[in-house]
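Sample intake sheet
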Amino acid sequence: MICWGPFQEAPTSNPAPDPLAPLKDEDPEVRVEALRKLASAGKAEEAIIVRVAKMLKDPQTMVRVAAIDCLSALAPRDPRVVNACIKGLQEEQRNMQFAAQQALTKAGPAAVPLLVNLAKDGRKSVRVATLIAVLGIGDPAVPALVRSLAEQDDRGRQAICELLAMFNARGKSALPALEMLLQDSAPGVKKAATAAIRQIEGGAPAPAPES
């Protein structure tokens, strides 16, 4: 046993550096680099996710983009992450919208109901970003869109028809649901359903989102 004299202190090991500390740095590039390192480390710990989520309020767009990328790498299907990406799509910053689109692609069909709600946004840039996100999810989005029909109002059903039309022939499984909408009480829904059926069956190209 080692006995330390009255004027001696036992040596202490240096504490491990806190990987979250750089997130508070004044330099945004340091904050971005810290977020990239956290994403690469892949540790989806609750404390990390909560801390990174706070970075979505950073005044610098580059930091918010890095935060979305980090959250998507750590927990792409976490409802909190999906909601953060939905908010990211609503930012009219192209880099932020692109990061959110990529992240929602990883989230998969679970993100579709929230995307449908966003497809009703009055801003064309947000609707276009939403369309790209849905298409990025791919074929699994089609049944998710159909399931969402029952939960939507007139504008929501119309938006779903417009989204399904963009899948072209890949949306054939949605045809029975679209044919039922031909009897919908809302003229806008019937018109959108008719256009979607025509597009899926190989007729006229789907119209671009309205401005």
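Comment: The radius of gyration is 23 Å. The chain has a mean pLDDT of 88.
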